[in-house]
Write a structure and sequence with these properties.
single chain, 99 residues, mainly alpha, DNA polymerase, domain 1
Length: 99
């Protein structure tokens, strides 16, 4: 006994296509700003979401933040052992300085 299966093709209506293609650039920018990590308030877990930041480096960032009170610029991260210009460049667009 042989079983045959037919392959069906379902086309997506235009309304079901990706919304990302239709989102205005201004909305994308606002969305990205909302997702920035505030290095003055972030937990170790939140810091680890950044590229190249693991548990040890996240803890060093928190220790430096506690030592100085708060970061006044993103470049202040260069004071943290293990963060150099290359790593700072990797995370610069994903962090912000909050209150």
């Amino acid at each position: 006994m042989a079983i045959t299966m037919e392959k069906s093709v379902v086309e997506k209506p235009e309304a079901m296509t990706s919304k990302a293609a239709r989102v205005p650039e201004s909305d994308k920018i606002r969305f990205d700003e909302i997702n920035l990590i505030d290095i003055n308030q972030a937990s170790a877990k939140e810091l680890q979401a950044l590229p190249g930041i693991g548990p040890v480096l996240a803890q060093r960032i928190i220790e430096e933040r506690n030592r100085i009170g708060k970061f006044s610029s993103i470049e202040d991260l260069l004071r943290v052992k293990g963060i150099g210009k290359k790593k700072l460049a990797m995370i610069r667009e994903r962090v912000k300085i909050g209150d």
